[in-house]
């Protein structure tokens, strides 16, 4: 940290000297490189590359002034450029707190760093000029740990902030429940400002998140019906719609489905769905089939070794069964699967219907 201390000291001394140099240079302004690159652009490139020594040259010699620098924008730009898929070296990885703190301290000497704005997204070392990203949503989409995110919260990140044209961080969290985030993590985020339950989600939030993950049409969020952006979905809807996205595969997908199904059962008593979740999920989640009940597949990982996971998690079997009892679409789904010659699913649904009828008879 000696380097940082010296750097910050130099920054403070450089401000008046930089002003004198600008005056001495007259009103001609900074010269641009032959390719049109300005000193400010080169300074920003050094910062993005975490080369603060060369960046400091521009400040120390008056080629760039603090007034020209949007510290919040540059901080986000540096982080997003260093946390993109396809990056071989990531000196400013979200979880590399020591290096991120060094950058934050460097920029905050110039001006306060606003972490709650937006910057263009990056992918495979390319800046995507038509897409906006926010820090909270991007970190949650990548599954950054609460321990790392707490560093940003301490320096002004607000999980309740909603930058314009950026998907809600709550949707990004939902997408990683069970596979990257646990119930303990969910509670931690809720206690630290992330809105869960009360927030509604315009259709555009789903399309922005699937654009971030670059999901093709088959893997993208399924939309239950034609809806305008002015007709948002509630939190329960978002949980069910996330079940239809195929961003994850194998045991990670099973873990995500298991968590979401259990969570849906918990949330269902607190808010009504805005569409029929039963028929929507049966049509759009291919694992939710009668033939998959009780079926397991083999998987392996460095952490757990070899293990088996449920293709159609039992929690989801129970959830669909509960939804069937209150859905007006049950008979239509039985007919649909029978027509498609998926007799195992049709028979399973018939069994659910018979159980519901017997239950009603006993109650009466």
Describe the protein:
- About 5% of the residues have low confidence.
- The strands form two sheets. The protein has a two-stranded antiparallel ribbon with strand order 1-2.
- It has a domain of 76 residues.
- Strand 3 and strand 4 form a beta hairpin.
- The radius of gyration is 26 Å and the shape is elongated.
- Helix 11 packs antiparallel against helix 12 and helix 12 crosses helix 14.
- The chain is built from 16 helices and four strands.
- It starts with a helix and ends with a helix.
- With 364 residues, the protein is mainly α.
In short:
The protein is built from 16 helices and four strands.
Q: Which ranges are low-confidence, i.e. pLDDT below 50, for 5 or more consecutive residues? A: 10-29
Describe the global form: elongated
Oligomer: single chain
Question: Pairing-aware structural class of the strands and helices?
Answer: mainly alpha
């Amino acid at each position: 940290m000696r380097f940082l201390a010296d750097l910050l000291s130099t920054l403070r001394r450089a401000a008046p000297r930089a002003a004198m140099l600008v005056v001495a240079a007259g009103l001609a302004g900074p010269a641009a490189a032959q390719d049109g690159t300005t000193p400010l652009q080169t300074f920003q490139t050094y910062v993005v590359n975490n080369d603060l020594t060369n960046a400091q040259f521009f400040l120390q010699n008056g080629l760039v002034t603090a007034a020209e620098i949007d510290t919040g924008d540059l901080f986000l730009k540096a982080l997003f450029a260093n946390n993109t898929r396809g990056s071989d070296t990531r000196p400013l990885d979200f979880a590399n707190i020591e290096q991120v703190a060094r950058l934050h301290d460097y920029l905050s000497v110039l001006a306060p760093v606003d972490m709650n704005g937006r910057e263009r997204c990056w992918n495979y070392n390319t800046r995507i000029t038509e897409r906006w990203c926010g820090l909270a949503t991007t970190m949650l989409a990548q599954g950054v740990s609460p321990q790392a995110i707490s560093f940003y919260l301490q320096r002004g990140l607000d999980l309740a902030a909603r930058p314009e044209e950026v998907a809600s961080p709550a949707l990004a969290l939902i997408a990683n429940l069970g596979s990257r985030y646990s119930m303990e993590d969910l509670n931690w985020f809720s206690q630290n400002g992330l809105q869960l339950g009360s927030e509604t989600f315009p259709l555009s939030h789903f399309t922005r998140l699937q654009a971030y993950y670059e999901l093709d049409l088959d893997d993208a969020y399924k939309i239950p019906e034609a809806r305008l952006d002015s007709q948002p979905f509630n939190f329960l809807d978002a949980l069910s719609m996330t079940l239809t996205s195929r961003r994850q595969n194998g045991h990670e997908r099973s873990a995500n489905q298991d968590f979401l199904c259990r969570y849906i059962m918990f949330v269902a008593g607190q808010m009504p769905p805005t569409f029929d979740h039963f028929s929507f999920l049966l049509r759009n989640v291919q694992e939710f089939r009668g033939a998959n009940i009780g079926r397991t597949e083999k998987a392996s990982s460095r952490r757990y070794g070899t293990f088996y996971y449920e293709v159609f998690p039992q929690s989801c079997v129970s959830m669909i069964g509960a939804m069937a009892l209150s859905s007006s679409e049950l008979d239509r789904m039985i007919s649909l699967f029978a027509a498609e010659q998926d007799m195992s699913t049709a028979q399973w649904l018939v069994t659910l219907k018979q159980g519901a009828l017997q239950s009603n008879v006993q109650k009466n």
